[in-house]
Design goal:
The chain is of the alpha/beta class. It is about 40% helix and about 20% strand. Helix 1 (about 25-40) packs antiparallel against helix 2 (about 40-45) and helix 17 packs across helix 22.
Length: about 600
C-alpha cells in the first residue's frame, strides 16, 4: 500500500498476502448495513452495487492519466464498469483513461500551478510522485498500490542459452559486465531521465558498485563507466527500447548490429512482448541475485482537496473496482503482479522467467529522492559531457562561520562541496573557475582563476587541468574590504560562456553567492536581465544555475537573472549542500536531451 489509504475494504482474495485493513467510507458502511437489514434491492436503488438499470446520461466522469503499460488494464476495468452500469451515489461511473509517460506527467505536475485536467494519476513508480513532492509541485496523495512488476534482463533465446539461462544466475554487476564487455551482448536500456525502469536499473547497478568497491569514489567511477557503456545503446523510453529487439528469427535480424539482443525491462513488459502476436522472438528473463528493482503503480489523487464530492466518491469507487478480485484478475491477465509483489509462477513463466532464477525474491528498497537526484545528475554529466564555468563569491561575508560545522566558514564548506562535485566529472568534461567580489582587477569585479577546459588536458608541468583546478578551488578565500560584485560578474561570465559554447556538451554557468549585489557602479538588475535575454540562444543553450547561500542572498534577483537563460535558482543554508544542488540542477536542465 502507499503512504495513505482510501476508505475501502481490505485486500480482496487472490491478491497475495493480506494488506493492512483500510477505513471504510460512511457511504459504503451504510450500504452494508442497509443491505443487511433491508435486502440488496435497497443498495441497488442507492446506486452502489455493480448492477441496475442502464445509464441514461446522469453520470460522474473521472479522468485518469496512467502509465502506458498499465493503461490498457485500467481501460478494461473502466469499460466493464460502463457495461455493467456501475454506479456511485446513484450516478453511473464513467472513467476515461489517458495513457501518458510518467516522466512527462511528473514534469508537468512539478510546475506550479499545474492545474491538471485529471483527478487520478497512476504512474509506474512511486519515484515520480516523490519527485513532484520534492519539487513542491502539485499536491499528490498516493492511496494504494494497484500492481507491481520486477525489473529483469530480457534476452533473446539463443543469446540467453549462451549465457546459461535458466540455470546460471548473475548479480547486477555481473549481468552488466557480461553484457557490455567485448561486445558479448548488445544491451539496450531506456533513458533513466525518462524511464523508471532505466533509472531504477541504474540505481541497482550503483548500489552493487558501492557494495563491492573499497571507496565511494571508486564506486562512483565504476557507475559512471557503466553509464557511458549503457548510453551507447540508450533509447528514449520503454516502448522505444523494446522496438530495438529483433523483429524475427532471421539471421539478418539477429545479426543486425542496430538490433539489441538484451534489454532491461519489467517482467510485465516481457509478458506483453512474449504474448504479442507480432512482438518478435520471445525473451528469457534473468533476475539479479542481489535484489531486483520493482515498478509500483500507485493510485494517486491529484490535488484531492480540490475534488468535489462526486469526483472523490468516483475515485474511491474506481479504486475498489481495481482492488477487488475481478480487477486484480484483469491486471494479472495483463502481466502484472499484485501490489504486494507476490510472484505467480505461471505469469513469470510466460514472461520468460524460470527457476532457479530468483524471481520470487523480495525487491530492494526504493532509493531516496536525494540518491536518485544525484544519480540523474551523474547520468547527465557522464553521458553528455559537460562544459561548466563556476563563479564563486569571495566577498567578506563568505568568512562567516556556519552553525554546527565546527567553526568552518561558508567558504570552507563551499570549497569542499565544489571539490566533491569536481570528483564526479570525467576527463572529457570541461570545467573552469572564476572568483568575484569588487574591484579585484582594477575596476573589474572578477578574476579567472582557471580557464574552462578539458579536465584530462595536461599542462607544461605534466599535471592535468583537474590538478590545476583543484589547486584553484583550494586557493579560494574571502577578500577583505570588498563587496559582492554579482551583476557585472554574471554578465561577463555569461558572455564568455555563450561565446565559447561547445556543441555536443552540456554548457552551463554556475554562480555561487551569499549576498546581494553591492557594487553601486555596476549594471542594474533590469539591464542585466535584458542583456541575458539577448545573449540566450535556444539553439545554443547555456542555462545559468544560481546557488544562494544563507538568508542574505538576494533570491528574488537570482530568480530574475536565471529566467531568460532557462536556468534555475536554488537556496541553501548549508554550503555543504552545493554539490547536491548542482547535480540536481544539471539533471533538471540536462534531461531535455544532449546539447
Amino acid at each position: 500500500m502507499g503512504r495513505h489509504s482510501l476508505p475501502d475494504d481490505s485486500a480482496p482474495p487472490g491478491t497475495g498476502s493480506p494488506r493492512p485493513r483500510r477505513r471504510r467510507t460512511v457511504v459504503l458502511a451504510t450500504v452494508v448495513v442497509v443491505a443487511a437489514a433491508a435486502g440488496s434491492i435497497v443498495a441497488v436503488r442507492g446506486g452502489l452495487l455493480p448492477f441496475g438499470k442502464p445509464c441514461g446520461g446522469d453520470a460522474v466522469q473521472l479522468s485518469v492519466v496512467a502509465s502506458p503499460d498499465i493503461a490498457p488494464a485500467l481501460e478494461a476495468v473502466a469499460d466493464e464498469a460502463r457495461k455493467d452500469a456501475v454506479r456511485t451515489d446513484g450516478k453511473c461511473l464513467d472513467v476515461k483513461i489517458n495513457a501518458q509517460p510518467s516522466s512527462e506527467v511528473a514534469d508537468s505536475l512539478a510546475q506550479r500551478p499545474a492545474n491538471p485536467e485529471f483527478q487520478v494519476w497512476v504512474p509506474d513508480s512511486d519515484l515520480w510522485v516523490d519527485r513532484v513532492t520534492d519539487e513542491r509541485g502539485s499536491s499528490l496523495t498516493s492511496v494504494g498500490t494497484l500492481a507491481s512488476s520486477p525489473i529483469a534482463l530480457g534476452v533473446v533465446r539463443n543469446a540467453a542459452q549462451t549465457l546459461g539461462w535458466p540455470g546460471k544466475t548473475y548479480s547486477w554487476t555481473a549481468l552488466t559486465r557480461t553484457a557490455t564487455t567485448d561486445g558479448t551482448l548488445r544491451l539496450g536500456v531506456a533513458d533513466p531521465a525518462r524511464s523508471a525502469t532505466g533509472l531504477l536499473s541504474l540505481a541497482r547497478i550503483n548500489a552493487a558498485h558501492h557494495k563491492e568497491a573499497e571507496t565511494g569514489d571508486e564506486a562512483a567511477t565504476r557507475t559512471a563507466a557503466t553509464a557511458k557503456l549503457l548510453y551507447e545503446r540508450v533509447a528514449d523510453g520503454d516502448d522505444q527500447v523494446l522496438a530495438t529487439l529483433p523483429r524475427n528469427d532471421s539471421g539478418a535480424e539477429q545479426g543486425n548490429p542496430r538490433r539489441n539482443q538484451a534489454v532491461l525491462l519489467s517482467e510485465q513488459a516481457a509478458y506483453a512482448h512474449n504474448t504479442s502476436g507480432d512482438g518478435g522472438p520471445p525473451l528469457d528473463l534473468f533476475y539479479p541475485t542481489d535484489g531486483t528493482a520493482q515498478l509500483t503503480y500507485p493510485y494517486t489523487l491529484v490535488d484531492d482537496n480540490a475534488l468535489n464530492a462526486d469526483q472523490s466518491r468516483a475515485a474511491n469507487r474506481f479504486m475498489t473496482l481495481l482492488d477487488d478480485t475481478s480487477g486484480q484478475e484483469t491486471l494479472h491477465d495483463h502481466g502484472f503482479r499484485a501490489g504486494n509483489g507476490s510472484a505467480d509462477p505461471k505469469l513469470t513463466s510466460t514472461a520468460g522467467g524460470r527457476a532457479p532464477q530468483p524471481y520470487t525474491a523480495a525487491p530492494a528498497d526504493l532509493p531516496s529522492a536525494k540518491e536518485l537526484q544525484a544519480l540523474l545528475g551523474m547520468w547527465t554529466i557522464t553521458v553528455q559531457s559537460a562544459r561548466i564555468t563556476t563563479a564563486v563569491d569571495a566577498s567578506p561575508s563568505m568568512a562567516v562561520s556556519v552553525p554546527g560545522q565546527g567553526g568552518r566558514s561558508r567558504m570552507d564548506l563551499a570549497k569542499n562541496s565544489l571539490l566533491q562535485a569536481l570528483s564526479t566529472f570525467t576527463p572529457e568534461d570541461e570545467i573552469g573557475l572564476w572568483k568575484f567580489a569588487t574591484h579585484l582587477d582594477g575596476d573589474r569585479d572578477y578574476v579567472e582563476l582557471s580557464p574552462t577546459s578539458r579536465l584530462g588536458n595536461r599542462g607544461a608541468d605534466g599535471g592535468t587541468h583537474r590538478d590545476e583546478l583543484t589547486a584553484a578551488f583550494n586557493s579560494l578565500a574571502p577578500v577583505p574590504q570588498s563587496a559582492t560584485g554579482l551583476y557585472d560578474t554574471t554578465l561577463a561570465a555569461y558572455q564568455r560562456a555563450t561565446a565559447t559554447y561547445t556543441t555536443g556538451k552540456f554548457n552551463t554557468l554556475v554562480i555561487v553567492t551569499d549576498g546581494a549585489n553591492d557594487d553601486v557602479g555596476s549594471i542594474d538588475l533590469d539591464s542585466l536581465a535584458a542583456d541575458l535575454k539577448r545573449l540566450a540562444d535556444p539553439k545554443r543553450p547555456v542555462p545559468l544555475i544560481a546557488i544562494a547561500i544563507g538568508p542574505q542572498a538576494d533570491r528574488a534577483a537570482l530568480d530574475r537573472i536565471v529566467a531568460p537563460t532557462g536556468g534555475s535558482a536554488h537556496q541553501v543554508n548549508d554550503p555543504s549542500q552545493i554539490r547536491e544542488v548542482i547535480l540536481k540542477a544539471i539533471m533538471a536542465a540536462g534531461s531535455h536531451g544532449p546539447r
